[in-house]
Specification:
single chain, 113 residues, alpha/beta, 4-stranded mixed β-sheet, 2 helices, phenylpyruvate tautomerase activity, Tautomerase/MIF_sf, Macrophage_inhib_fac
């Protein structure tokens, strides 16, 4: 299950979050190659963030997935999600940082259910 956790210094109380959820979910599913119903998106606003020495609109995000992540997928996620947040939240792409993590990368362990 891919999960996007986005934290921003913007107040999201009056923002229509539905288009952000919809577009981010679709983008992540398409880019990683997972069904949309497996994608989780978490948005958290009003978090104090300083970037480049100022508190202008900025965001930090993490995408965690079990498989499907490679260098090109990371680039596509950064570009696409950056565009969504710029269009929907007016956060410049230059003030958005995304960490992409594959939980299966480098892991030799297996888990049993």
């Amino acid at each position: 299950m891919p999960c996007l956790y986005l934290t921003t210094n913007l107040n999201l109380d009056e923002v229509d979050k539905d288009p952000i959820f919809a577009e981010a979910t679709k983008a992540i599913a398409t880019i990683i190659g997972k069904p949309e119903h497996f994608v989780m998106v978490i948005l958290k606003g009003s978090v104090p963030i300083s970037f480049n020495g100022n508190k202008e609109p900025a965001a930090y995000g993490e995408v965690v997935a079990m498989g499907g992540i490679n260098k090109q997928v990371k680039r596509n996620l950064i570009a696409t999600l950056g565009t969504i947040f710029q269009d929907k939240l007016s956060i410049p792409r230059t003030r958005f940082f995304l960490k992409v993590y594959d939980t299966t990368a480098g892991s030799n362990s297996t888990s049993k259910l």
